[in-house]
Amino acid sequence: MNRKKQTVIWGSFLILFTGCAALSTMLDFKRLYGSSQPRERVVQTLDAEHVDYWQDVKPVLDRRCVVCHGCYDAACQLKLTAIEGLERGAHKVSVYNSTRITQANMTRLFEDGHSITDWRDLRFFPVLNEYAQTPEANKQAGVMHRILKLKAENPLPEKDILEAFTFGVGRNDICPKAEEMDTYAQQNPLWGMPYGLPGLSEYEQNNLEKWLEQGATYTQRPPVKKIFNAAIQRWEALLNQDDLKSQLISRYIYEHLFLGHLYFNDISKTTFFKLVRSKTPQGEPIEPIATRRPYDDPGVSRVYYRFLPQIETIVSKNHMHYALSPQRMKTWKNLFYEREFDVSVLPAYGTKEGANPFITYTQLPMKSRYKFMLDEAQFTIMNYIKGPVCRGGVALNVINDRFWVFFVDPDLPIESELSAHLDANAENLELPSALGDIYMPLISWKRYATKARENRKMRDSFLLKHLSDEKIRYDLSLIWNGNGENKNAALTIFRHYDNASVKKGLIGDNPKTAWVISYPLLERIHYLLVAGYDVYGNIGHNLLSRLHMDFLRMEGEAAFLMLLPQFSRQKERDYWYRSANEETIKFLMNPETERLIQPDIAYKTDNHKNELFDMLKTHLGNALDIRHDIGTIENLSTQEALKRLSKISGTGTDFMSEMSVIEIIDGTQTDRESIFVTLLKNTGHLNITAMLSEYKNIKKDENTLTVAKGVLGSYPNVYFKVEKKQLAAFVDHVESLQSAEDYKSLMDTFGVRRTNNNFWQHSDHVHTFLRNSNKAEFGWLDYNRLENR
Hints:
The chain is α/β, with parallel strands linked by helices. The protein folds into 3 domains: about 5-220, no CATH class; about 230-595, no CATH class; about 630-775, Nonspecific Lipid-transfer Protein, Chain A. Helices cover about 40% and strands about 10% of the residues. The chain contains 28 helices and 14 strands. Strands 9-8-7-10 form a 4-stranded mixed sheet. The two termini are about 40 Å apart.
């Protein structure tokens, strides 16, 4: 018998054996504990001896469990950011599946199910005991109790590097039901929770076990504090006026803020709300309308925009904070509600009608739309970076590892002409999200490629016309300077292989590439990758969304390149797109436009790109955010060591992680001060046009490092802890990296590995720093990408 046949037979036997074992266990549970059914766990009051979920359990879940069980990529879809997620349970199918043929059923907590029965119908299974509610049944038939106990009885082995574990977001989760726990524990005795991390403290473990044994009951969530009532009433009154003009404005605002965590800046920076569509008006209980996309048909004749409390634990990876204040309301009124324009008819909903904002919102002033998005440009871009699209290497290999973003000034004297141009060109600005599920992506891609070329042709004609009549000049006046104060005027975007982050300011040394974003580009990014992106969509939808983003990236890069003289422009483009295919090269340039559009900028050196960056920094002035600049660190020796670290480049840096958080400690054990910095690896590429074979375009000798003050990103790969007096030695060690063994030595000396007995203590320290740094920005970090080396 050959090995292949043996494998098939033994695999079949194992499946049969485990299936029979699970059935046997289920029958035992039924015999011992009765039938399984959803249980009501809310109680009016707690007995004196009962553990309080809100005071004693939730804080432990936040610190130790939410770091792996939050958002769409929560392991086994078990979201522990709310008690309702724990009651919902787990699922054996991942949300992220870029190869599925048809779109999946949506499983958004609080939206696509409203009872335990709803979730069981969607194939979620319980992790809390749903048999008879006795202490013994709660222990033996509860997945959560069993898997916590498994870890307590089988702590991590005493070694730095773990074996027999699989890590990373691409791993296949094993999601055992209660009746499968015996087999799970036998086959994976070390895979208790927290997975691949040190166990809980005795206090934490005892609290969770006792709560579970008592039936996992909890009292009702306290209502929203009355202090927010007046603010909610004011904002809902603004957003729910009856006239057509106000209804269209509010729809536009909602479609740009629906993912945001909104807070009333003058009341609290830690209590958040979500803007939702409701069937019910202000003053009545909210009845949220759940649709696949924010512009899908709500199924009612009139929607109302309401503020729903954000009751889940805030996690950094999807936390997009947006402040509402008296000044913000005044801004919205000036941009929209008090500006004179007519709305004669409300546009239709749906993917075909609502997916193209240039048609849907043609009645709204273009400048008002642009200024609305620019006012919080980091938030606008963050929706793409932290929204559901942003997960996995294939989703992100459309952007470089670090680049700067600038914006076209909204007050250029061509508002009416540009608005008319967009109306005439609206069909060419159509996005793939208008198709919903896509079954012939390559044919669709050709269609959108043709539209993209036609759009570029019309855009170039528009530019040439208004340059010739001198209504605009191609110089630094094209670039928005944030009116001298808005810190959103310049952004830095980092790609960390399979996740990304966006920060205000121009962080690090001058980058390889940069974008200049105009209103049409910014709006298309939002409707392609935020409002129009479906995380539950099919392979065609995912593929075409990724391919279309190529067009948008190239448009942003081209706008930046046009600020360079023609020779430098071509030189840079050739460098950015080395080894790109001929089709891409043809799309990148229009020879006639290249010749006719020359920047009106007096360059004085031969390094035009670096000189342009310097001029842009001067142009931005006080609008340039320098919070993350290591030059603002007061201690000069620390500053100099970090500057040296940021100059390291080449193949040796490939051993470094995508995102390393470094605590630099100064002082004695009893009187210590710490600063935190983030060390980011920027991988070099020949080009970034290949979707499925990125590795062929990686150029390791062009890798660089960026050091930023503070903690950037949501997914740390590595923690380092360095005494200030050892910082120079740490830099030396990074500089001399030549092998995996060298990196192991670096970790042995300075690393806080996931196996470190003090890992949770260090984790708490990092989160305390983050909370104290900015309460509105704070969210729990995600540990699904922690390394094991």
